[in-house]
Design brief:
By secondary structure, the protein is mainly alpha-helical. It is built from 10 helices and no strands. Helix 1 crosses helix 2, helix 1 runs antiparallel to helix 10 and helix 3 packs antiparallel against helix 4. The protein starts with 6 loop residues before the first helix and ends with a helix.
């Protein structure tokens, strides 16, 4: 295929979209759990849900099953960009650097893999941030219109800054997840090869192990970026000293812990982990099977 192999980009994007469709309702419950209980936001002060199952049941009963998939199209658009860039960049950069090592890339090199994963995750997430903001707004239930109308109103009311709201913690979270998840998957997969071979069972077990670490590491940043994305600030408005908005990542961290306690940073952990597990399983099995085609 030559030095520039497009397959990791195409396969990464397709596998990400398949995984997103399969796990999106869990992601919706996670988002709603993360934004509830904010003392500075009158819209979400009330603790409406006691957990993932309660959120799933109440959302289905009160708004219909369709509400669990509200925001799916910006999510698919996000994966088409984020997933394509992230996995394509990771595997392409990893292979390029492996060829320059003394061992010729015959062994996994953890520092190299971690760097490639963090770089690919942060870059792709920053680029795809507008679709992530749209997804969060629609999942919370504030925006019930279609993707185009939601985008147009955000652009008109909040400007370009609204589309990149929460970009810093989103990129940091993506870099952290990728830095833990991708090297862990590759390492587990290689270690299990003698016993299981390059088979779906190997891919499944490696995916589960990789998702646990990334869920523990990333949930606090996920709570912060969800809250930053969900808040609105009008275009060209100047924030007053008493405005109840988060000023950035650190401010959101501090105020969340101060007002709700440290456990608030792990709101939505269970659906985060339960989503990451199936998401990674669907993604990596799809990705590995796509590799078999061509």
């Amino acid at each position: 295929m030559g030095d520039r192999d497009w397959r990791p980009f195409i396969y990464g994007g397709l596998a990400s979209i398949v995984a997103e469709f399969g796990t999106f309702p869990i992601d919706t419950t996670k988002t709603r759990l993360q934004i509830q209980g904010q003392k500075i936001d009158p819209r979400h002060v009330e603790l409406r849900y006691t957990g993932m199952v309660d959120c799933f049941v109440k959302t289905s009963q009160q708004e219909g099953i369709k509400a669990l998939y509200c925001g799916i199209w910006p999510a698919v658009l996000r994966q088409a960009t984020y997933g394509t860039i992230k996995f394509g960049t990771y595997y392409s950069l990893k292979n390029a650097l492996a060829k320059r090592r003394a061992d010729g890339g015959s062994k996994e090199h953890l520092p190299t893999n971690t760097f490639c994963a963090a770089f690919a995750g942060g870059l792709s997430s920053a680029i795809a941030n507008p679709t992530d903001v749209l997804k969060v707004r629609m999942q919370v239930g504030d925006e019930k219109r279609n993707l185009v109308r939601c985008f147009a109103e955000m652009w008109a009311v909040e400007g370009v800054r609204g589309l990149w709201r929460g970009a810093a913690p989103t990129a940091q979270r993506a870099a952290l997840i990728a830095a833990v998840e991708l090297p862990a998957y590759d390492g587990c997969k290689r270690r299990l090869l003698p016993a299981l071979g390059d088979a779906p069972l190997n891919h499944l077990l490696s995916s589960l192990l990789a998702s646990l670490g990334s869920a523990v590491a990333s949930t606090p940043l996920d709570v912060v970026r969800t809250r930053l994305m969900n808040q609105k600030k009008l275009k060209d408005s100047v924030a007053k000293s008493n405005d109840n908005i988060y000023k950035g990542t650190i401010d959101c961290f501090v105020r969340t812990v101060r007002n709700e306690g440290f456990p608030a940073l792990y709101k939505g952990f269970v659906p985060t982990w339960l989503r990451m597990g199936p998401w990674n399983i669907i993604f990596f099995i799809t990705y590995e099977q796509l590799k078999q085609f061509y």
